[in-house]
Backbone:
């Protein structure tokens, strides 16, 4: 046991060691104590979490129980597995199984789970979820699943597996909880620290120059609802929409979202098929670091599978792709297409304020060009 906690006596300027101990030595249980602590104060795990279930066992074909289930600020399901003093050699495997069981849980299922856990009505559960998360749409709940493992000590079998999973982009982390007992004051203390993934590097600020000022692109904060990037993109979009001659998009991001790599995004779309914020929309991306000396991209993107599921025929999808390709050639845009994804994008080497007029003008032109084409095709299917 290597962790140390010190009690400070300001009067004589001395430090006294508070000894690390074992949970088991003090009769502290995994289910009836540690689980209750985390349930009551999930922030001890180092991030805001909304607990939606405890001892969850409503899986078909198995009677296994997940310790705690939560939502993070991006609406992802978080499986929390707790161990007391030793993790055992397969806690990661338990959590992976539970995360896999949740991969097909939809947003309405999540609402039902929270409603049952808190014994509240569905409408109230949905309200609580949307008030907590920092995402645009209710439909974005449970786009992905994460894992948090919690224990006093982790077996090398577990940490080795977690490192491999992290290398393969599985969102998993280990939180070490260390108990201390102050014999002099008869008091208990607890520290909780992430040990995997390694902490530190991701907290450095990566900035882009914006009119001589710095905009933080991946600042260590839980909400970016009103930061400089969001403000810049809102103003850019508002200017563009003032110059729209076709139907204006009636759905937009509430703030600039953030991908895992720090890239920021803002999207516009319509509230009917085939439009969708992820699969069929106008998108603005502010890069975390310059890509070929470019700082921002603006594009029209659609997913062929989504377009087909929304009612467009193969011939209509091909027509849309060809017209977008022709438009990209006429305007010298970057065009990309494969079996699933199609997009035309313009890249900018400057951000605000230098690019504001140019970017907003391009966005209005892009919408004026592509929206009528999509709507004409959509009318053919109705």
Residues:
């Amino acid at each position: 046991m290597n962790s140390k906690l010190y009690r400070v006596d300001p009067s004589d300027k001395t430090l006294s060691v508070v000894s690390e101990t074992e949970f088991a030595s003090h009769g502290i249980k995994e289910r009836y104590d540690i689980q209750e602590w985390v349930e009551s104060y999930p922030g001890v795990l180092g991030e805001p979490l909304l607990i939606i279930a405890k001892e969850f066992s409503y899986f078909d074909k198995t009677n296994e129980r997940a310790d705690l289930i939560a939502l993070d600020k991006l609406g992802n399901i978080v499986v929390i597995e707790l161990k007391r003093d030793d993790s055992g050699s397969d806690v990661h495997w338990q959590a992976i199984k539970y995360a896999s069981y949740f991969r097909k849980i939809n947003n309405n299922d999540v609402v039902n789970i929270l409603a049952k856990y808190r014994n509240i009505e569905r409408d109230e559960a949905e309200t609580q979820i949307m008030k907590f998360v920092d995402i645009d749409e209710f439909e974005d709940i449970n786009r992905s699943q994460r894992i948090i493992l919690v224990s006093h000590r982790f077996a090398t079998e577990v940490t080795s597996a977690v490192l491999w999973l992290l290398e393969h982009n599985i969102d998993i982390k280990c939180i070490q909880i260390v108990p201390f007992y102050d014999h002099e004051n008869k008091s208990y203390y607890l520290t909780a620290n992430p040990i995997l993934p390694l902490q530190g590097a991701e907290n450095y600020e990566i900035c882009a120059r914006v009119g001589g000022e710095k905009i933080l692109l991946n600042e260590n904060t839980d909400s970016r609802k009103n930061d400089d990037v969001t403000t810049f993109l809102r103003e850019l979009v508002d200017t563009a929409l003032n110059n729209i001659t076709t139907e204006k998009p009636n759905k937009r991001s509430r703030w600039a979202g953030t991908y895992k790599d720090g890239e920021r995004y803002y999207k516009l779309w319509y509230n009917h098929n085939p439009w969708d914020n992820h699969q069929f929309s106008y998108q603005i991306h502010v890069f975390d670091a310059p890509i070929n000396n470019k700082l921002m991209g603006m594009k029209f993107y659609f997913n062929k599978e989504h377009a087909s599921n929304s009612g467009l025929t193969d011939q209509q999808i091909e027509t849309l792709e060809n017209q977008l390709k022709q438009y990209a050639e006429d305007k010298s845009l970057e065009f990309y297409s494969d079996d699933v994804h199609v997009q035309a994008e313009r890249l900018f080497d400057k951000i605000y304020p230098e690019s504001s007029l140019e970017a907003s003008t391009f966005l209005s032109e892009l919408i004026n060009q592509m929206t009528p084409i999509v709507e004409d095709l959509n009318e053919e299917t109705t």
